Every structure is written in C-alpha cells, then in structure tokens.
Amino acid sequence: MKKQTITAVIPAGNEEDNIERCLKSLLWCDRIQVLFLGQDKTARIAKKYKAEVIKFDKPEFHDIVGVQKSVNWAIDHCQTDWMLRIDADEVVTAEVKHEIQNILTKPQVNKTDLMAYGIPRKQYFLGDYLKGGDWAYDRLVRLFKPQFCRYEPIVAVHEQLKVKGKVGYLKNPLLHFSHPDLKTLITKFNFYTTLEAKQLRNSLFSSFLKMLFNPPYIFLRWQLYHHGYRDGIRGFGAALARGYYDFLLYFKRIKYLVKKSK
C-alpha cells in the first residue's frame, strides 16, 4: 500500500525567533514550504532545514489577507496528497505527528471520506501551557486535502478555511507559543483589534454596551464554563486578558465610528 504524501506550509512574516523550533517538528514531512512575507532572517534559517522558501514581497501580502492569498497559492501549486498549514509559532508534537502518519497510511476510497481535520492547540501563556479557558477549545482546520480546501472568501481578520467535504478532528494538540510574554500579547491584541474594529457592523450604542458588558461575561465564561480556574493565577490573568481584548475592540470601534461620522 502506497503511503500518501504531505506538504507542510508555513506562512511567516518576521519569525526568526520562532521558525527553527517549528521546522524541527516538521522534518518528517515530504516537503516543507515557507511562504515568506517578512524581511528578517526567517528565510535564511528555513533554508538550513532544506525548506523551500517562496518570497511574497508585494505589499498586498504583508497582512492577514496576504497570508490567505499565499496559502491559496500554495494550495494551487501543491504536489502532494495532503497539506499541513502551520504557523511559525506552533510546534507539531510527536503525538500529532503519529496521528497524521496514521492518516497518511490509509488510502482514500471515495469522496465521502474525510477531506480535512481540525487540530486542537495547547496555548502557551506567559510562561506555561493553559489547561482551561476559551483558547483550549480551538479546533482550527490545519490538515487537509488541497483540492477540496481554500481560503474563500478572503477576510481581513479571523480567516476560516472553506472545506468541500467532511471534516474530522485530531485528538492531540499542537503547541502554540501564542503569548510567551506581555509585550507579544499587547502587540497581537493591538494588531487584531485594530483590524477587527473596522470589520464589525455594530452601531455606536451597541458597541458601547458590548464594551461595558462583554469583558465581565468573557471573564466568567473563561473561568467557570471553560474551567480557566484550573490554571490558578495564570488562568485568572488569561481571563482578564481575553476580557480586555473585547474592551479594546469595542473601544476602537467607537473611536472608528465617531471619526467616520465627522
């Protein structure tokens, strides 16, 4: 029985601090492609690990829209049976690797088979991995057959892969070094809320209400319903941070609407 093949695709901006850790976890793949959207040493490091580096240096590729366009390009040019889309700040564990390799050994019989898999992520937050909270329920589609998947429509924030077929889910999580320190957390929150505030359709009044009431609701949901209390003081801080995200988001939405009305 012939084993199916797989390409790991990493869209990466200035990720010289993360890319090596990610690449080391992908050396078992048939191909590794780094879709380079930045200006630092990421590409040079990737080439040391025999990764194919495709540079997207046009301005339209330097944001989240660019990430989706670059992955769609990789999908269109993919030469393997499967694609694994990984961020540079993520790591494929041995357990995830074994799950994927088991999938690769199974021949696809017909179009009713699974065409993609969501993979949970274990979030690294200010010094340790979180056991609970909203982020523990991430199940992003990252493993897929390229001919059945695409980023469509292209969106400015919180992209979703469109799958033509059935989606399954792996049991083991990727490691996601999403918020290793406070500086990274603040930078990411500021970046995403600025983009998202412009995409929201909330009115001024609705945004004001959400700015006031969403943060305490999210804090309680994180701590109680999603068991963030299991992480102790770190979980308390993560819940506060997630609530602050929505406060910042709707504060920026209000500013955007006020400025637009002048």
UniProtKB/TrEMBL annotation:
InterPro entries noted in UniProt: Glyco_trans_2-like (IPR001173), Nucleotide-diphossugar_trans (IPR029044)
Pfam families: Glycos_transf_2
Source organism superkingdom: Bacteria
CDD domains the UniProt entry points to: Beta4Glucosyltransferase (cd02511)
Domain Glycosyltransferase 2-like: residue ranges: 8-114
Protein name: Glycosyltransferase 2-like domain-containing protein
Native species: Candidatus Roizmanbacteria bacterium RIFOXYA1_FULL_41_12
